[in-house]
Design a protein that fits this description.
Elements lengths: L8 H13 L3 H14 L4 H24 L3 H5 L1 H24 L3 H17 L6
Helix pairs in contact: 1-2, 2-3, 5-6
Length: 125
Amino acid sequence: MLALNARFPDAYHNRGIAYANVGKFDEAIEDYNRVIAMKSKDPNIFLSRGVAFTKKAMEDFRRACDMGSQLACDKPETTFTLMHLKADAFHHVTELRNQFSYSRQQERATEICNPLILFGGGERI
């Protein structure tokens, strides 16, 4: 079907689901990207792609666990979420710090930002 009509988004979505179900996440993500290029208003495509990205990331956590990372072994889903939150907090802290131009204001920004960074597991500024 895809050879006959390469612009049929549902076929790519269904093939992406089939790829994901057998662990071929890169191929699934490629198909989801094609669908998004054709039909970007369907939230199910983004959901499918997000699931494929998450399952692919979980493979890396399992590999890290096999290599001796206790953090990856304990609760990879929690680790994944915390790492995302830490990166997001760091981004917001950096934006906030960039808004202050004088050293006195930077000191105040540091006072505000350090608790956020520490919450995310990072080091003080």
